[in-house]
TrEMBL record:
Catalytic reaction equation(s): citrate = D-threo-isocitrate
GO MF, one example: 4 iron, 4 sulfur cluster binding
Keywords: Iron, Iron-sulfur, Lyase, Metal-binding, Transit peptide, Tricarboxylic acid cycle
Organism this protein belongs to: Maribellus luteus
Residue ranges of domain Aconitase A/isopropylmalate dehydratase small subunit swivel in the record: 557-685
Cofactor(s) this protein requires: [4Fe-4S] cluster
The protein's Enzyme Commission number: 4.2.1.3
One Gene Ontology CC term in the entry: cytosol
InterPro entries referenced in this protein's UniProt entry, alphabetically: Acnase/IPM_dHydase_lsu_aba_1/3, Acoase/IPM_deHydtase_lsu_aba, Aconitase/3IPM_dehydase_swvl, Aconitase/IPM_isomerase, Aconitase_4Fe-4S_BS, Aconitase_4Fe-4S_dom, Aconitase_dom2, Aconitase_mito-like
Gene3D superfamilies cross-referenced by the UniProt entry: Aconitase, Domain 2, Aconitase, domain 3, Aconitase, domain 4
Protein name (record): Aconitate hydratase A
Domain of life per record: Bacteria
Amino acid sequence: MFDSDLIKKVYSKLPERVQKAKELLNRPMTYAEKILYAHLFETQELAAFERGTDYVDFAPDRVAMQDATAQMALLQFINSGKKRTAVPSTVHCDHLIQAQVEGKTDLSVAKDTNKEVFDFLESVSNKYGIGFWKPGAGIIHQVVLENYAFPGGMMIGTDSHTVNAGGLGMVAIGVGGADAVDVMAGMAWELKMPKMIGVKLTGKLSGWTSPKDIILKVAGILTVKGGTGAIIEYFGEGAKSLSATGKGTICNMGAEVGATTSIFAYDESMERYLNATGRSEVAEIANQMKDVLDADPEVYANPEKYYDQLIEINLSELAPHLNGPFTPDRATPVSEMKEVAKENGWPVEVSVGLIGSCTNSSYEDISRAASIAKQAEEKGLITKAEFTITPGSEQVRFTIERDGFIDTFEKIGGKVFANACGPCIGQWAREGADKQEKNTIVHSFNRNFSKRADGNPNTHAFVTSPEMVTALAIAGRLDFNPQTDTLTNKNGEEVKLDEPTGFELPPKGFDVEDAGFQAPAEDGSHVVVNVALDSNRLQLLSPFEAWDGKNITGAKLLIKAFGKCTTDHISMAGPWLRYRGHLDNISNNMLIGAVNAFNDETNKVKNQLTGAYEEVPKVQRQYKAAGIPTVVIGDQNYGEGSSREHAAMEPRHLGVRAVIVKSFARIHETNLKKQGMLGLTFANENDYDLIQEDDTFNFVDLVDFAPGKQLTLEVVHADGSKDTIQLNHTYNQQQIEWFKAGSALNLIKQQNA
Ligand code: F3S
């Protein structure tokens, strides 16, 4: 499945590109910097980019998409007019499978309920040369690690835990669907040159401590925002002693500290993993350029000088941790949990222990957890809590079943869910969760925000390693410390659990009957993509209309948003996720969370046509039907939050022509530009106060739209008085062409025609 030609191509250019960058920078480079500088887009000039400041155009090698975010990304890609994706891409069906009964049953229910979405993703993949991983094949990040990640590569993925691939030495970054469309359509992908955080690992893990504890410790140090805008690079003897999958776990949870991504340099553990997963060819080439696939020695000799921040952790002294509840950065050593839980009044009875997920379902993880589960039986212990296992891939599931681990888990009452996200993303139909009882669960996933796993705001979720989850599930208590405490077995004897043991890789090798991969058609031109016209969940996109070349006049105010207006306020998540592939249906959530500056209420704006106060989407649909353009006014940092492209597509679809704000969150501003909207800022922020509820807007010089030139807006108030104000913009010539064409994709299509 892995693309050997792609990897050879990347490796053939890597040394020379890194050398050129090093000469230009005239200093040693970190490992992540080498990968970034080797992946500049063809039109991006090589320069000494300032970390944390300069925006740079990159050319990632691959794209991976999960089923929830892939829908809109692929619907847009279809409109690009391309016959195949410009870079190798894959789709993974993992988020839409709900865990309830057990793997097989749940999978068949999910295939039924999501049939039209899965069929759509399958046919688009087949047509446009995209690898398709069927429902049940596994979780995107585990499948990517097993098949596609490679040292020195660069990929983007439409999921925040794409960063998992840093475990195999790749710069892998989570993005929104719009970014995936750009890269698949052959456009550049822009990123602010990240800062570099170095984490030096000394010593060696032992006993109950696992790679998970390293990231739980780092999360405690950096907190959920501490990694923002930075790449975390791990190095040192301690780093070399970890397995590649352990490294993956650490990188995976880099998302929990807000890091752009995390990475380890190429080493022998990666070589072993590449060999074990059928990619010796990759390891062989990587072995020939070990110096390129690592930071320069001067960086390690003087890390304070070359990293913007440095953290040191001695693995020999590191203790196992439990992070939570409600936030992944609240780190408590297991040995202190007794007191901390008591102080905070957290329920100490563990109701469920859950292992697996994209974060922790490697063979090593499972074998170590199984070594604990096995002891329960041998020592006559009865497992107190419920226990579930979510394998990360069919390859892992098949291998651990062959090697008897599933049997071991089942003996302690373990239930194996489908190879999918399940409880990790809230796709868990947990019995009784609706009663909202206060309770504690422990899991080996990455996120533990309120309601994340089961929808119950009173579930206290703690994150830890799979082996610790297993021990706490057996004990049934959060304050159990397996390092010191004993448990009473069914004969009334006090017994102690021995330290976990496991295998880095399966001694008999990995095995699988059907991994669940479907290669695309060689020539997909004959493949028909079917979307039912009456579908609620999917809708083919019609290209947005091109600009008519005239000034926009007579535009009405739709809403003047006050205060924080994030992409969640503009396009809510929750139940709306169901409509991610249906632009018209999801547009019914447009701006329903934004606060109207004139009445401090949400989803209640004045309809200038009738004078009535109604829901935002409803009012906008009436303007659209009447052929009246509209304008949205916003406050500071408008559109912060996720890179969700729906927040830009919905207003565009419903006929909003311009969004004028005090300031933009940059990604949202770019998304507006890509969708052919006007994203503008007040030249004088105080002009925000001039905007009245019944205003009409005339753009008087849009016909002269040019880079660096302000636009003039005439604001006509209800009493006939007028204000003329200046608006700034950041459109370059290319982006103005997007506006003229109606969207960036329209322009690509014209260029491809
Ligand atoms: Fe994400 Fe967990 Fe799935 S973090 S990819 S939801 S297993």
